[in-house]
Amino acid sequence: MDRPSISPAQIAEFRQNGFLFVEDVLSAEEIAAIAARTDLIAAGEAEHIPKTSVQLEPVFRAGEREVEDRVLSVRKLYNIAVYDPVMWEHAAHPKIVDIIAALLGTDDIKMYGDQLFMKAPEVGSAQRWHQDSASWRDILPMDLVTAWTAIDPADEDNGCLNFVPGTHRWGMLKSPRVEPLLEDFGSAAWPIVPAPLAAGSISFHHSLTLHQSNANKSGRRRRGYAVHYMRASSYCDESIQDAPKMPPFRQVRGRSFEGRV
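Above: the chain's sequence. Below: its structure in token form.
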């Protein structure tokens, strides 16, 4: 497969909407490799992955439902690429990082973190409307980009991502400030754009773009691997104490800068 490239028109689309869908970035073989690694980690069979990097679905955490299949009980894996060579190979994949570099306008790139959303059949829970930088508010500028890779085909039945275009230009909004806006989502002014993706396709979104996903009501899995990238020249404001505590940021490409992330 030839390396996907993005055009100036696609870069302009990303800047206008706050998201971009790129089809067939990875091969079936590449997706099969990360799919197998995903299930190995979710099954608890990867001893090099901390237990704190595995989160069960709420119904299992609350004891409302008994765990019968460990893999299908997991909601999310996170901060795994810094420990696992297979997942790091994906995070540093040239096809993905080339697109990130074009969207960020630099080859000096670090990984902020990663999250693998499992969204199992029937129990895969919804994710509310949010901006990533509302959590990552210690990283400045708030101009990170996420590459969300579909491991399984994602559609509206099994809980694909949904975006509201242009919301990355609204500034940072914590959850209480988003609530009054929700009744306008889906209108002509602020349409909701779903992101159905074939396995191996990737959606890229800005860290201030409002997005969410619905519960998986289907009988199919919907695994998606989100890797979050930032410029290596970004600044971490250590005076902000209520942001996530992350592992050391790892260089993906290019230079690092003293006193920056």
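The longest helix spans residues 28-42.
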